[in-house]
C-alpha cells in the first residue's frame, strides 16, 4: 500500500478475504462508511472484476439516493491486496468471505491467526458453518467468531454475530462496534446453531415451498407471488412475531390461542412436533408486551399499515 493511500484515509482498516458477492458487497459498505478496505482473493479473475462490481452497485445506490458519498471516495478506500499477508498488514479487523467449505475455512483461519497480531478480530461470513468447526484449535481462538451478513449487506443491514463458547466477550464487543460503525445492525445469536437464525428462518420457508410444489399444491410463480405481494410486503414492515401480534386484537397470546392448533397440524403434516406450549407463548408474549404495551396496539397497527402503503406507493411509482 502506498503512503498516499495510508495518509489520505481514515484510521480503521478492514481486511476482506474473498472477492465473491459477499466480499465485494461488504467491501463497498465498509468503504462507504469511511473505512479503508484491503481486499484479497486467490482467484485473479475475481480480483480483476472487483472495481467494476463496486462501481455498478455504488451507482445503483446513488440513483436511489441511498448514499451521500462519491465513487471517488469509495474507490480511494479500496486496496486490492496481492496476498493474504498484504491484506492483513495494518488491519484491525479481518472479514473472511470465502466459499462455504469447512476445510477451506480451517486453512484460511490458520493463516489469519498466524499472520494477524493479537487484538485483531477474525470474523467469518459463514452462512451455516459454526466457528467451533474451523477455529476451535487455533492459538487465537478467543478472537474468532461468525459475523454473517444478509446478502448484499449494503441493502440488508443486519449482521448475525455468533460467538463460539471460546470467543472472548471483548471480541464480540469490538466486532459489534465495527458493524455499527459501518451503518449495519449487529444481531446477537446467543449460542451456536447450524445455519444461525437468518438461514434457519429462510430454510424453513424454502423447505415448505419445495414441498408445496412437489405435492402439486401450487406452482413456483404462485408461491413467489404470495410471498412477494403478501407475506413479503408485511415482513418489510414487521417481523413474524410482531406480525402475529398485530394481526389479532388482544395480541400474540390471542393469536396463539386461535391459530396455534392449526399451525401444529400443519407441522404434523411434515413430521414436525413443535407445539406452542403455554410456557413458550407466555415467554413470547412477555417479550412483545415489553416492546409494545397493548394500549399502544392500535397506533402500531396504523403505523404498520402506513409502512406498507409507502412500499406500495414506491412500487407503483417505479413501475409507472
- CATH hierarchy class name of the largest domain: Alpha Beta
Strand order in the sheet with the most strands: 3-2-1-4-5-6-7-8
**What is the number of independent domains?**
2
Order of helices and strands: HEHEHHHEHEHEEEHEHHHHHH
* Strand content range: 5-15%
Instruction: Give the low-confidence spans.
Output: 1-10
Question: pLDDT average, as an integer?
Answer: 94
CATH architecture of the largest domain: 3-Layer(aba) Sandwich
What do we call the CATH topology of the largest domain?
A: Rossmann fold
Number of strands: 8
Helical proportion, percent range: 40-55%
Total DSSP helices: 14
Give Rg in angstroms.
22 Å
Question: Rough shape?
Answer: globular
Distance between the termini: 47 Å
Give a quick summary of the entry.
This protein has 320 residues and is α/β, with parallel strands linked by helices.
Structure description:
The protein is α/β, with parallel strands linked by helices and 320 residues long. It has two domains: 3-188, Rossmann fold (3-Layer(aba) Sandwich), CATH 3.40.50; 199-319, N-(1-d-carboxylethyl)-l-norvaline Dehydrogenase, domain 2. The chain is 53% helix and 12% strand. It contains 14 helices and eight strands. It has helices at residues 3-7, 21-32, 44-48, 50-63, 71-76, 84-88, 102-115, 169-181, 198-214, 220-235, 240-247, 251-269, 278-291, 297-319, and strands at residues 13-17, 36-40, 78-80, 93-96, 121-124, 144-149, 158-163, 185-188. An eight-stranded mixed β-sheet has the order 3-2-1-4-5-6-7-8, sandwiched between helices. A hairpin with an 8-residue loop joins strand 6 and strand 7 (158-163). Helix 12 crosses helix 13.
